[in-house]
Amino acid sequence: MTKILLAEDEKELSRAVQAVLEAKGYEIKAVYNGKDAVEAAQEEVFDLMILDIMMPVMDGIEALKEIREGGNYTPALFLTAKAEIEDRVAGLEAGADDYLVKPFSMAELVARIQSMTRRSREYDRQELVYGEVVLDLKEQELHNKSSVRLAKKESALMAMFMKNPGKALTTEEIFARIWDGEEGDMEIVWVYVSYLRNKLKAIQADITIDGEREGSFVLCPSSGQ
Amino acid sequence: MNSIYGSYREKLELILNDLTEKIEDLNKAVKDARGEGIYEHLTARVKSEESMREKCRRKGLSEDERSALEEIHDAIGIRIVCSFIDDIYEIVSLIKGFENIEIVEEKDYVRNVKPNGYRSYHMVIAIRTDFADCMGRNPGKYYAEIQLRTIAMDSWASLEHRLKYKKDVKNQQLIVAELKKCADELASCDLSMQTIRDLINEDNDNT
Predict the structure, then answer these.
(1) Same domain flag for A101 and A138
(2) Which residue, among B120, B101, B204, B104, has the nearest Cα to B161 in the 3D structure?
(3) Distance from B86 to chain A by nearest Cα, in Å?
(4) CA–CA–CA angle B54, B57, B58 (5° rounding)
(5) Chain A residues 123-162 with a CB less than 8 Å from chain B
């Protein structure tokens, strides 16, 4: 069940949103100021947060900043009475994923919530498949005739290939994504591609990674298949 | 009690020593040529009376020479523990070149991993001897099983063997699944180490 934190100080609006969302099958925890929102986010696990910007004690932007600083990246939607661009920008910069300008239609709120929870579900997708090979992202396991467990970056690299089969990915592109912001030698890309090649071979995969050292790499069906 | 191997007990020791020596010579030759042996270590044994009798009973065979030497093929057993995966296959092909032996059976559990995660290469060979066997053949025919695996595969198999978990407890499935994960992790390390060796060799070849 999808659990939503709702922080809205206007009691009537809060009740109305809660009623609509509960009718849609969501579980709602309602709080009425920013400080309580921060506390709730620290104590319970939510799939989504809806925060009003203008709230007593602590406003929504401050609350979300604090929640994000604590390492909580639950998708967040701001409700704002002000339509000014600056407010919307401030909200997104504080770590919000979307916003709705008051007054809003309940249908639009529901549609946005559905879109956001779908997105985060897709992000958490557990398995990628190409050819006969399955990559289990949660377990970091590569399966075919047998299985091997991958290290974290091997799994991330394999996922990048499996999400982009048949596309030529450059060493630079791979390094930027998988070794995001890390110092070091791009030679590591070649080492990891080599690991994956041998591991694919070991599980008798029908796919392989083509390409030369320092060049571009493509996930494709292995020759002779 | 008489030996289950009857009068062939000493012959088995003789054949085992001979085979071990051949493999050790092979290792020495490779070491002289490349500066590095082909395997890490080797263990050789004639299957104990007790476990051979137990195996006969398990297979519903009578406890005699014929069962122990002709029906069952691992009275003589050698386990070769290698450093790298590719070494397994190199040794297999070198053993196939030995004189007076014939390959009876090969099971590649390195590629065709057992469902519990067990990895190893098993081969049964028949050795021709200049003395008779229990079937009256002369030259005689004796069987030996050779198992080849990496250090990581060997360590998994030894440790798994020591975990005497009850087969009927309700979390048995969980234990088996977790042990398989360990095997798949070790296999992954083996493949990484093999890859690193390949990359180093490539580098050395290019300079």
Answers:
(1) no
(2) B120
(3) 11
(4) 85
(5) 139, 141, 145-151
Domain ends where: A75, A104, A123?
A123
A148 plus A179 within the same structural domain: yes
Cα gap A30→A7, rounded to integer Å:
6
B191 to A204: CB separation less than 8 angstroms, yes or no: no
Q: How confident is the model at residue A123 (pLDDT cuts 50, 70, 90)?
A: low
Going by the DSSP 8-state scheme, the letter that residue B71 receives in this structure is I
| A114, two tokens | 């559905």
* N-terminal to C-terminal alpha carbon distance within chain A: 43
- Specify the CATH superfamily of domain B6-151: Beta Polymerase, domain 2 (3.30.460.10)
B194 has a chain A CB within 8 A of its CB: yes
Query: d(Cα B8, Cα B82) in Å, to the nearest integer?
Result: 31
Residues A30 and A85 in one domain: yes
How far apart are the C-alpha atoms of B26 and A36, rounded to whole Å?
Answer: 75
Show the domain range for A92.
3-123
- Confidence class for position A26, pLDDT limits 50, 70, 90: very high
Domain ranges, ordered by start, for chain B: 6-151, 158-206
Q: What is the ipTM of this complex?
A: 0.80
Q: Does B187 touch chain A (CB under 8 A)?
A: yes
- Pick the residue of A134, A138, A144, A148 with the most B CBs within 10 A to test the interface with B by mutation: A148
B115 and A CB contact within 8 Å: no
Per CB-CB distance under 8 Å, the chain A contacts of B196 are: 191
**pLDDT 10s digits, B52-86:** 999 999 999 999 999 999 999 999 999 999 999 99
**Same domain as A142, residue A193:** yes
Q: State whether residue B191 sits within 8 Å of chain A by CB.
A: yes
φ/ψ bin of A84: left (φ > 0), alpha (ψ from -120 to 50), beta (otherwise): beta
Instruction: Sort out which chain A residues have CB atoms less than 8 A from B188's CB and list them.
Output: 148-151, 199
pLDDT at B187: 96
What's the rounded mean pLDDT across residues A64-70?
89
Instruction: Name chain B contacts of A205, Cβ cutoff 8 Å.
Output: none
Mean pLDDT (chain A) is 90
